[in-house]
Amino acid sequence: MTDRLHGDESDAHDELLKMSDEAFQDRIAALDQAFASQSAAFFFNSQDGSHTIDLFRMDGTGVSDDDEYQLLRDFARDLDQLVIFAFSDAPDSVAHEWGEVHGEGLGDMAVHRASVMVDKMPNALRAWEFRQSAPGRILGDLSSVIVFAGSHGICAQIRLDSFIPVGPRAIPSGSSRQFLDAMVTKNDIQYLIAQLEHLSHLLPDFDALEEDDS
């Protein structure tokens, strides 16, 4: 299974604008369900400075085939620009100008696709609004690499990025970013997993939040 991590962004964005409405809406519906089932999240890709969606578990997406799941993951990450247009109240003129760069007549489609995301992705929108109004720092990127630590054997190096959102694109600026670098063993990783799982059980899920709001 491959992971494009945007690949050729221009071609990927062309595909988003040229696919049928039915295919686009089916995919964003699957992604929104993934947010509701704790299988997707926003992250800030520090490599190219963009906000995008990471689909990290097949559960809850309605997808059961590995290849379809990978296509949905690629689709989710390629939504980076449309996420900003849809969820950051960007002027239609900005989305239109971006769309026209990808082909004559695609400006209107870019505006349309952004509006569809607002209407059809309520769970994703709720997650985005939390990130932009959180009382503290928000999660950026999490990266890891396997390393050989001499006589200590094989371990991992993890890097956790957090930042304060700044500006209309809600990007980190200057000293607003903080990084945590740590060398971890497998025991350390399992400890982190256990602590995070415990924390997850303490938080309400999206369905519970919707019931509270009703």
Q: Strand count, sense and closure of the main sheet?
A: 3 strands, antiparallel
Average pLDDT rating = 84
Secondary structure class reads: alpha+beta
Q: Can you give the helix content as a percent range?
A: 40-55%
Total E-strand runs: 5
Please report which band the strand proportion falls in: under 5%, 5-15%, 15-25%, 25-35%, 35-45% or over 45%: 15-25%
**Tally of helical runs:** 9
Query: How far apart lie the N and C ends?
Result: 41 Å
Shape: globular
* Major sheet strand order: 3-4-5
Order of helices and strands: HHEEHHHHHEEEHH
Could you list the spans in which at least 5 consecutive residues all have pLDDT below 50?
Answer: 1-7
Q: Specify Rg, calculated over alpha carbons.
A: 19 Å
Q: Count up the domains.
A: 2
Q: From the structure provided, what is the oligomeric state, counting identical versus distinct chains? A: single chain
List the main descriptive attributes of the protein structure presented here.
214 residues, 2 domains, three-stranded antiparallel β-sheet, 9 helices, 5 strands, disordered N terminus
Your description of this structure?
The longest helix is centred in the last third of the chain and has 17 residues, at 186-202. The protein has 9 helices and 5 strands; from the N terminus they run H-H-E-E-H-H-H-H-H-E-E-E-H-H. 50% of the residues lie in helices and 19% in strands. A hairpin with a 4-residue loop joins strand 1 (40-45) and strand 2 (50-55). The protein has 214 residues and is an alpha+beta fold. The strands form 2 sheets. It has a 3-stranded antiparallel beta sheet with strand order 3-4-5. Residues 1-7 have low confidence and may be disordered. The protein has 2 domains: 9-132, no CATH class; 136-213, no CATH class. The protein has helices at 9-18, 21-36, 66-77, 80-87, 92-101, 106-120, 122-133, 186-202, 206-213; strands spanning 40-45, 50-55, 138-148, 154-163, 177-184.
